[in-house]
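not sure who needs this but someone in the group chat was asking about HIT family protein from Loigolactobacillus binensis so here u go. i didnt clean anything up, its just raw.
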Amino acid sequence: MAYDADCIFCKIIRNEIPNTLVYEDDVVKAFLDITQGTPGHTLVVPKTHVPDIFAYDAELAAAVFSRIPKIARAIKASDPAISGMNIVNNNGQIAYQSVFHSHFHLIPRYSAADGFGMTFADNSAAYTPEKLQAIAAKISAQF
């Protein structure tokens, strides 16, 4: 597995930095986020150092993503008060990524007032069907 000697998550994977383990296998390590956005907030990180989603190959993506539902179900089963979960993956500084080792936040949701929130601006008035089709065509042309 590829590591980055200066990466905080690589150091956590190697247990050079204390962490609170939730799950570990040969592909991922899941541990509690020290910020605990809500109780049970867990980070899932691939053991191979990849900076963001753009660096995954299909094999690593399949291996990492296939483990997320199992970990999410375990978190939900751990507390009957959990009624939902946000799964968040930020890629790039502009997208609020602060540690440049790919990771997924599994954030249990207890209520609308549990201290975690996500909002998106409604820009729908600025996008005609033609503008949406032009955007989709630019993306589709990349496959």
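also The chain is about 25% helix and 15% strand. if thats useful
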